[in-house]
Amino acid sequence: MKLSAEKQEWSNALPEVFRQVFSDSEGAAEGDVIGALVSDLLTQTPDDDLHAAIAHDGPQVLGCILFSRLRLDRDPRQVFLMSPVAVRTDRQKKGIGQQLIAYGLDGLRRDKVDFVVTYGDPNYYGKAGFLPISEEFLQAPLPLSHPHGWLGQALTAAEMAPFNGPSHCVSAFNKPELW
Ligand SMILES: CC(C)(COP(=O)(O)OP(=O)(O)OC[C@H]1O[C@@H](n2cnc3c(N)ncnc32)[C@H](O)[C@@H]1OP(=O)(O)O)[C@@H](O)C(=O)NCCC(=O)NCCS
Prior knowledge:
The protein is about 30% helix and about 25% strand. By secondary structure, the chain is α+β, with helices and mostly antiparallel strands. Strands 1, 2, 3, 4, 5, 6, 7 and 8 form an eight-stranded mixed beta sheet that branches. The longest helix has 17 residues, at about 30-45. The termini are far apart. The structure holds coenzyme A (COA). The site of coenzyme A (COA) has 20 residues, from helix 2, strand 4, helix 4 and helix 5.
């Protein structure tokens, strides 16, 4: 298995990988929603606002994570949203998800990103260093249907004061049903 950040090189394959994985785990309708989200992220997001971590075995994608920018109106710190995350159904529970997260966060750290948020299962993401955060600490861009899934971690050693101002996600994420 190899890890790559080259989103362009893999962009044709990624929507279908996510569609398949989420279709297996959450049903066909959710698979379609996440496949479309990934396609929108790859085609509509400015290059600087989207990072990827891709695990592959030769030409076959084994897993992928996308990271997209969250802009804050009144805070200079750089924040990214880690979502969505998928590992091929037949390769899950072998550590690929955790390796992808670690690789993706290393890339963001090199790019001087200060903080990463995600929205998901606290048990799983807790293993990768994410802790629950409140909206007083960092306001989500849209109303959260599962506030306990709002998680974050600092990528620098600096003390993290609460973030100022509303946050804005990239356009692909700007849909209430995704939150
Ligand atoms: C969630 C997902 C990305 C995890 O990837 P993975 O490669 O299977 O996970 P890993 O093998 O790295 O898991 C590492 C640890 O987390 C545990 N784990 C895996 N999935 C978990 C889950 N859903 N909840 C809690 N713990 C989980 C594993 O048991 C393992 O624990 P251990 O290290 O103590 O043995 C993958 O299962 C997946 O794609 N699921 C379907 C899509 C999805 O739900 N994505 C996340 C929402 S965006």
